[in-house]
Amino acid sequence: MSRRCDLSGKGPLVGNRVSHSHHKTKKRQLPNLQKKRIWVPEVGRFVRLSLTTRTLRTVTKLGLFQYCKKNNLDFDAIVGR
């Protein structure tokens, strides 16, 4: 499973941990991904997606179809029609 949001495309960030003595080591900050089943009334069925919590809040507020329309995403490809 890739650690990437299915809708927004957000993925891991890379940076440095800096110790007190200023030694630097690589670290990864992973997105807060959640697997969710979302009801899509336009299609009449559930769709399983891996979403960040930020995207999930927006999809809950707008709906999946409106989110795709607003962000110029292909709704049919996401739903799998």
Q: Approximately how much helix is present in the residues?
A: 25-40%
Highest CATH level, the class: Mainly Beta
Query: What would you say the CATH architecture is?
Result: Roll
Number of domains: 1
Got a strand count? 4
CATH superfamily: Ribosomal protein L28/L24
Biggest pleated sheet: 2 strands, antiparallel
Major sheet strand order: 1-2
Choose one word for the global shape: elongated
Question: What can you see in these coordinates?
Answer:
The chain is an alpha+beta fold and 81 residues long. The protein has one domain (13-73): Ribosomal protein L28/L24 (Ribosomal Protein L24e, Chain: T, Roll), CATH 2.30.170. The protein is 27% helix and 35% strand. It contains three helices and four strands. The protein has helices at residues 53-62, 64-70, 75-79; strands at 13-18, 24-29, 33-40, 45-52. The strands form two sheets. It has a two-stranded antiparallel ribbon with strand order 1-2. The longest helix has 10 residues, at 53-62. The protein is elongated and about 60 Å long. The mean pLDDT is 94.
